[in-house]
Write a structure and sequence with these properties.
The chain is mostly beta strands and 366 residues long. It has helices at residues 11-26, 53-66, 92-100, 105-111, 353-358; strands spanning 30-37, 40-46, 73-80, 83-84, 87-91, 113-115, 133-143, 147-160, 163-174, 178-193, 196-206, 209-220, 225-234, 240-248, 254-262, 268-277, 281-290, 293-303, 316-318, 322-329. 14% of the residues lie in helices and 49% in strands. It is globular and about 60 Å long.
Length: 366
Amino acid sequence: MLPVLLAAATASTVASGSTLADRLVAEGFENVAMETRGERTIVWFEDRRSLDATVGLGQVVRLAVQAGVESKALELVPLHERLPVLGIVMPVAGLRAFLQGTVTDQAFGRELVFESLPPDPPQGAANSSIGRPELQLTPGYAFSDQLFGYANSTLRAQIAPGWHAQGRLQLQFYPTWSLAPTFGLVGGHRAVAPQVDAAWSMGRWSDERYGAEGELAGWLGKGEWLWRTRMSLVTTLVPSAVGSMEYRFPWADTYARVGAGFFPAGDRALFVTFGRLFSHSEIDAGYFRSDYGNQLRAMLITYLGPGRRPDPRPFRVEAPGWMEFDYRATAPQGATLLWPEPEAGVAWRRLTPDYVRRHLSDWKSP
């Protein structure tokens, strides 16, 4: 049973908090911890089961109301690799009224207060994710100067708060068969300022390449603007530096992104892309003007599993998990391509104040 870390708490508060923590752990939430500070109850948790972070937030607030949280205010602190992503503070009375349908999404959204640097979780969190591996099998097709069919097997584990190790084995099944490891990296991330996240990785990029890369990412306003910079230095590749700015339109989870930079294959490029987020997938299409000429890009990433992702305990295997389709007309295979996948601010993809407020209806769904 999770200890409630407040010496001045009453016995009834401890029992209520422990019940909520146990329920969260039973649902597959990791790194669960609770504290009561004055008139506010703080709940830390990591959700690696929901495909959309707002769905997991909704599950937590419904369980909190069912458990009878007694404080006047409730603060949710979702975590990524055991580090806080965002703090979401709400009045408990307003939350109950919202879930009962007597307060509109817009009115309740105005009551939410967001903290870009929320408190760190206490020691001894329940259902720790540290050292817990997961294997994800991702089939895909990529078209550049020719068509490639492949399946990635990515093994990843959190090794410390904010740190992870990952490796990938790729099976290519079209146009020829081959099996080879791609990267093996150790990396991490950490907030470095309000609304700014840094990430880094180092290790093996491919058979003959080793190097390191660093990223900075942040959000502006209410989260409708997101920016990202990335630099890498890898043996036998050109040093790269790429930056981009993204705007989220206030309808249909659509976005536009513009950027420019020097890419590892030695090409320079300006680009503009448009995309949309769905509950189980994302589409992205754009135009790149590079040293290789005009390039049209289109990408679809979709989740193939049913409903929520499998419970991470004790060793999660997603087979298949996500599927990728990448179309890069007229572009050589390595042109204007950055990998491994970005890590800085990755949790903000579906977890900014703007996104949360626009998806409060997810909190009411069981």
